[in-house]
Amino acid sequence: MRYYIIAGEASGDLHGSNLIHALHQQDNHAVIRCWGGDKMEKAGATLVTHYRNLAFMGFAEVIKNLPTILRNLRFCKNDIEAFCPDVLICIDYPGFNLRIAKWAHQKGIRVVYYIAPQVWAWKENRVKGMKKCIDQLLVILPFEKEFFASRWNWPVSYVGHPLVQVVADAKKQPNDRPLADRPIVALLPGSRQQEIAKKLPIMLQVTTYFPDHQFIVAKAPGTPEAFYTNLLAGHPTVQSVSDQTYSLLRQAKAALVTSGTATLETALFGVRQVVCYKGSWLSYQIGKRLVNIKFISLVNLILNKAAIKELIQDDLTLENLKAALQELLFDREKQQQIDTDYAQLHQLLGGSGQASVQAAALIVAGIKK
């Protein structure tokens, strides 16, 4: 069968690659074409467009790049029609994927959405349109199945979170080469250049206050080396690694993490963290009026409490970050509480840790049915 998959960011590339592996296991004759990244291509799909050409963050940035986005939409539709897939699989990335899903449904193409848009946070009215154009919705957060069932009378499939298996596999790997001879604090400033430029400078400022620790930046794949060189200038003691984020998290004692999937990855590795978020002034002002959630990190959302510290926008200052990191590194009571919360988080994510395999099985069965 023929599968067309669209992922628009680094996390989608990771989950898409594992889904592709699972689809090949379920379907020996699978032909897969995708928008995504290096991982999806390596997994056996033909890569059409890399996600680094799609990553526009925030309201202001989307408006600024609207002509490019519209060109991408037109090209994507033409490419799908030429490929004639048995199914279109959308992975997260709702601003783009929901438009493509609506169009594909009108063309009579079966649509599967894997990793649901976070409609429980904002734009809940999008569910009306989603129900009309999505044939199969596969969700990965434990509270989402109940959300769609109780509020929208939509039976969806919960497959578990794909990161559970990803991180479990990473932990089984042989011991890594030590990245430093001192306790490590990982800096995970995000995958988009716009968000890295906002948050990494503040993260770097705090490094001078903890001379007994080695700070290491996890570089985003596909980001030019010169971009980091400019940001790291003036911080000679700070190291950086490329394509070694999991190795870094396996060795880190604490982490400063941009909100998003990385917060959940960090928690599953058992690394205590501070969540950092800072966007453009306009995007933040618009967003805080539209978003209907108590927390911005997946860890806190799933646990439904402030288990880890979140420093958002104006709260992301040097003094606040310094105090929060001090607590993570030296407050034993705080450390024990986070460890307990992480154990509960892992239990809530539950399942066998085979989200990709379960998702692939449901997708193949749906096509055959």
Topology at a glance:
Elements: E1 2-7, H1 10-26, E2 31-36, H2 38-42, E3 46-50, H3 59-64, H4 66-83, E4 87-91, H5 94-106, E5 110-114, H6 126-133, E6 136-139, H7 144-152, E7 157-158, H8 162-171, E8 184-188, H9 193-205, E9 214-219, H10 225-232, E10 239-242, H11 245-251, E11 252-258, H12 261-268, E12 272-277, H13 281-290, H14 298-303, E13 309-312, H15 318-330, H16 332-349, H17 355-368
Parallel strand pairs: 1-2, 1-4, 2-3, 4-5, 5-6, 6-7, 8-9, 8-11, 9-10, 11-12, 12-13
Helix pairs in contact: 1-17, 4-5, 5-6
Q: Summed up, what is this model?
A:
The chain has 369 residues and is α/β, with parallel strands linked by helices. The protein has 17 helices and 13 strands. It has helices spanning 10-26, 38-42, 59-64, 66-83, 94-106, 126-133, 144-152, 162-171, 193-205, 225-232, 245-251, 261-268, 281-290, 298-303, 318-330, 332-349, 355-368, and strands spanning 2-7, 31-36, 46-50, 87-91, 110-114, 136-139, 157-158, 184-188, 214-219, 239-242, 252-258, 272-277, 309-312.
Number of domains: 2
User: How are the strands of the biggest sheet laid out side by side?
Assistant: 3-2-1-4-5-6-7
Assembly annotation: single chain
Order of helices and strands: EHEHEHHEHEHEHEHEHEHEHEHEHHEHHH
Count of distinct strands: 13
CATH architect. name of the largest domain: 3-Layer(aba) Sandwich
Helix content: 40-55%
Q: How many helical stretches?
A: 17
Radius of gyration, in angstroms, nearest whole number: 20 Å
The CATH class designation of the largest domain is Alpha Beta
Biggest sheet, open or closed, and with what strands and sense? 7 strands, parallel
Fourth-level CATH superfamily of the largest domain: Glycogen Phosphorylase B
- Kindly report the average pLDDT value: 90
Low-confidence stretches: none
**Through-space gap between termini:** 13 Å
Which structural class do you get from the secondary structure elements? alpha/beta
